[in-house]
Amino acid sequence: MAKTPFLTLEKAQEIVKDYPTPFHIYDEAGIRANVKSLVDAFSWNRGYKEYFAVKATPNPFLIKILQEYGCGCDCSSKTELMIARTIGATGDNIMFSSNDTPVDEFKLCNDLGGIINLDDITHIDLVEQACGKLPEKMSCRYNPGGVFVLTNGIMDNPGDAKYGMTKEQIFEAFSIMKSKGVKEFGLHSFLASNTVTNEYYPELARVLFNLAVEIKEKVGVSISFINLSGGIGIPYLPDQEPNDIAVIGEGVHKVYDEVLVANGLDDVSIYTELGRYMMGPYGALVTTAINEKHTHKEYIGVDACAVNLMRPAMYGAYHHITVLGKENAPATKTYDVTGSLCENNDKFAIDRELPEVEMGDILYIHDAGAHGFAMGYNYNGKLKSAELLLKENGDVQLIRRAETPKDYFATFDCFDFYDKLIAE
After folding, report:
1. What pLDDT is stored for residue 1 in this prediction?
2. Is the Cβ–Cβ distance between 54 and 84 less than 8 Å?
């Protein structure tokens, strides 16, 4: 089976005249259609809000599109909080879900009026230290331990995960927070990553909804919002069935009625914190074939590398590849598709069946819209590529320029390194 690119060869050839490969490009029409479907799927809940996981695709141009549909920002660091502030997301439009957190980051979130989502009970004292007193609205992250869902091995064994508190710690944390003036409480959990199943969210919801009932009974605290976090995945493999967000939303609705409404908690707001689901399929890494090598295997070398998309190198993750202009050609060749890093795992594909690739062919690497550019780095002195937006009208907008050698050398400021380099 094949995946369909949102970019044609003709459009790609037009783009590379102004923006050489490699580059990341995002599909505005796809992003808008997807967020509309998400909001509709949870419209049964009066307080529903999506907090986009900024870490997945930290580009203000893209996040501002989501803002138009009422989405907030889920931030995990100081710079992500600064992005939120820059695009006008303050107050309840910020959820700060961090771990091993520097104290000044708690203060910045509080100064912006954002919601602090505590990862550990010891952070209560840190927040109080940073902010002078606890905010009136706070959340805690729960980790039930054990094994919850087995999907891809990235984050599916809560008992081994560094995130969240035990049930006993949750009870104690809410009791302490209540005694220190917190008036509005939220509950959060992240138990699995990239689940391609409609059952994950309802199962997670049942865990959190039942815990909310226990908290009310044992601590006397009524939970006002429950954040189901992320975990809704995308079908990286071409033969996978995608999640049905309408089915997922209705599944959560059913559990909401069975557990929360049945126990008198019928006004709890549902939040989500999606990243990959929001952007993954609507971004691609576009690269050009620049080398071929015939040794023990057949290799195609491209001008992108793991700097541009490290998921295959880091996780062994599959990303589908389309040779633009050869979408209907038979896959008669078997290649390793590689970048140029001095690391053997710098491969976008291993033993991948593709049409015959010729030098100069443009390759479209699918599902790179989340945890793609965001995870980039500068190993081997490689520079991060540009990010482009394919607008609904067909125009292309530069939303992040490519790095230059001057950017790379800028941190050697004390030596005037770049000026000396170009003078030689």
Report:
1. 64
2. yes
Confidence class for position 151, pLDDT limits 50, 70, 90: very low
- Please determine, for residue 143, whether its predicted confidence score (pLDDT) is greater than 50: yes
Q: Which of 169, 240, 179, 229 is nearest to 204 (CA)?
A: 229
Instruction: For residue 5, say if its preceding peptide bond is cis, omega within 30 degrees of 0.
Output: no
Integer Cα distance of 350 and 158 in angstroms? 31
Given a contact cutoff of 8 angstroms between Cβ atoms, the answer to whether 269 and 252 are in contact is: no
Residue recorded with tokens 């060749």: 333
Supply angle C-alpha 122, 72, 265, rounded to 5. Answer: 70
CA distances from 231 to 13, 70, 103 (A): 36, 20, 28
Sequence-separated (6 or more) residues with CB below 8 Å from residue 174? 140, 185, 215, 219, 221
The answer to whether 118 and 97 have CB atoms below 8 angstroms apart is: no
Q: Are 50 and 66 in contact (CB under 8 A)?
A: yes
Q: Is the model's pTM score more than 0.70? A: yes
Q: What are phi and psi of 375, to 5 degrees?
A: -95, 10
Q: Token pair of 258, please?
A: 């069975």
| In the block, residue with structure tokens 């689940």 | 195
